[in-house]
Design goal:
The longest helix has 17 residues, at 184-200. Helix content is 66%, strand content 0%. It has helices spanning 3-12, 15-27, 29-35, 39-53, 58-67, 71-79, 89-100, 121-130, 133-140, 147-155, 165-177, 184-200. By secondary structure, the protein is an all-alpha fold.
C-alpha cells in the first residue's frame, strides 16, 4: 500500500486498531526479512511512525515504544520520563521500559541497539547511574545490544569507568543471565575474562 494511503488510514483508525497494526507489522517476521533491506521502505515506515507519534495518544505511544522502527520516535518516548509531570510519570516509565525492550529498531542490521538511544556515551552513563534496576534488566538483556557498545562498557575505560559500581555489577549480572543473544556463550566467556581480570587487578 502507498505510504500516503497508509498514513491516511492510520490517522483515521481508533488507537486500539493502530496498536494492533503496529503489533502485526512487528510479528510479520518473514515480510520484514524480505523487505527491510529496502531503505526507502524503512524510511516510509519511519515517517508513518512519526505521524502516529503526533497523534499524542497513550495507547498509540505504547505501541510505538514497543514496535517503532524509528530511533527518533524511540528517543522521544524514552526521554519523556525526564520531564514528565507527576500524573504522567507511571505511564512514561512504562513507555521507557517498552522502548528498552523494542526488538524492531533498525531491523536491517544485526547489532544496532544501544548507542542509538543516546546522543553519546556520557548521556548513556548519566542514565545508567540514575535509572531503575528494571531499566538495566531490559536494556542489558536486549538481543540486539550493540557489540561495540558492549565492548566499551565491559572494558570500563574512560568515560565508562564513571558508572557506579552497583549499576555496573547489576548490568554484568543481567548480561550473564541472558539467553537471548545468539552469541550468549561467547559473551559469557568474555564476561568471565573481564571480571577475572578486574579481580586480579
Amino acid at each position: 500500500m502507498h505510504k500516503c494511503i497508509e498514513m491516511t488510514k492510520l490517522a483515521l483508525l481508533p488507537p486500539f486498531n493502530v496498536y494492533d497494526w503496529l503489533e502485526r507489522r512487528a510479528t510479520d517476521a518473514e515480510s520484514w526479512r524480505r523487505g527491510w533491506d529496502d531503505m526507502l521502505l524503512v524510511s516510509n515506515h519511519e515517517e508513518i511512525d512519526k505521524a502516529l507519534l503526533a497523534r499524542n495518544d497513550p495507547l498509540i505511544d505504547l505501541g510505538l515504544a514497543k514496535y517503532t522502527v524509528s530511533y527518533d520516535v524511540a528517543r522521544e518516548l524514552f526521554a519523556r520520563l525526564s520531564h514528565a509531570d507527576p500524573s504522567q510519570q507511571q505511564h512514561n516509565f512504562t513507555l521507557r521500559l517498552a522502548t528498552l525492550s523494542n526488538r524492531c529498531l533498525m531491523p536491517f542490521t544485526l547489532s544496532v541497539f544501544g548507542a542509538g538511544l543516546f546522543k553519546n556515551a556520557n548521556a548513556c552513563i548519566q542514565w545508567l547511574n540514575v535509572c531503575d534496576d528494571s531499566e538495566i534488566s531490559s536494556f542489558f538483556t536486549h538481543p540486539k545490544l550493540d557489540n561495540h557498545f558492549l565492548r566499551d562498557f565491559l572494558e570500563g575505560e574512560q568515560p565508562w569507568n564513571s558508572i557506579q559500581e552497583d549499576k555496573r555489577m547489576l548490568a554484568i549480572l543481567k548480561l550473564a543471565e541472558s539467553d537471548l543473544h545468539e552469541s550468549c556463550q561467547l559473551r559469557r566467556r568474555r564476561l568471565r575474562r573481564l571480571t577475572g581480570r578486574r579481580q586480579m587487578g
